User: Fold this.
Amino acid sequence: PRPFAGRGCRGVGLPVRNDMINIEGEVALKTELFGDPQALFEQLGRPGPVHRVALPDGMPAWLVTGHAEVREVLSDPRLVRGADAAAPELRQYLGMYSDDFVLTRHMMLSDPPDHTRMRRAVSKAFTPRRVEQLRPRVEKITRELVDAMLPQGTADIVDALALPLPIAVICEMLGVPFEDRAEFGQRAEVITGMNASSGPQELVGAGRWFDAYLGSLVERRRTDPGDDMISGMLQAQIGPDPLSDLELRSNAFILLVGGFETSVNLIANGLLALLRHPDALSRLRDDLSLLPEAVEEMMRLDSPVSTVTYRFATEKLTIGGVEIQPGDHVAVSIAAANHDPTRFPDPSRLDITRKTNGHLSFSHGIHFCLGAPLARLEGEIAFRELLSRTDGLRLAVAEEELRWKQNFIVHRLEHLPVTFASAEEA
Assistant:
């Protein structure tokens, strides 16, 4: 992609640097803090909802941690995603800028009116009705995955359930042939390694692969449409303000990656939370009608997306009593906002009956996650199947042996080994 490609450029970050030293007036933050709100609060070292920090990639930012203030930021039109609004000194941190790159020309990194136009087109293909129609298929895929686990008495939940379930579902929604899904998953893992294990050249390579693959898939659907989301997005092209071909491919890409990342982390992180709170696990197993509330509480307790970056002030404004200058970078800690004790008392405790209305794990405002109904559906079905068909679930390793993906944007377990007995044989 061309760097600094003019007005409306979108950014993709550079690899993380955890060796950053303190910059004057800023607190340098390491990656692991972003998935641990209590440790983050301790590191920030002072009260207040807004902090001057250096992110793990070195980029200066105002980090917003208060629940009310994060909601404010996520809905304030004076804070835009388009990186052309960024102060010149910030551009060195915005690795790849381009209006013609598939990784960055989607609605998540767009502002109105482009965002409005893109979301309208994608929403026509990603409707709640379409998601609900997937329920029997999600149940079947989940049942088959658990079938394969049960005879072993042990499994890595990430590899056996949390990852393959949402990848299979989103690929079916997009009409990706079964034989291509393994490579889709591998390439998507490179993208989710952004700001962590994946370097700029790997990201560019994965982006080009997605661009070429999705381009060929789109062309096939033009001549042979089906009951999939790409066909639905093509149908939405008939009318005013259609998506460009690049925008269609880019939004298909973000649906693919976003369509599984949240669910993977919900299932794995949520199960770990239950294992850490055995009373909650027992109560939920005894009363699966609590699942909808429990899933929301799992999302709040350990948000799959921990940080949202790349919002730039277009004018002077005040957040939480702190004056933000034009061009400043504002990032929000979703994890910290979900642990704000003024909004959620005793926030580190898993309370599966907690009223979690207002948690921010699916974001807020115009960028509220379009895939939220799908993540909830997959989470509820996965936990229902797992809890109803196993007994004695417990970690197969000491908790300190668990490892998290080195990424300050998402909070993802590398593996979650567990042991269990089959409830069907008990």
In short: The domain at 11-422 is CATH 1.10.630.10 (Cytochrome p450). The first helix runs from residue 37 to 44. The chain has one domain: 11-422. The radius of gyration is 21 Å.
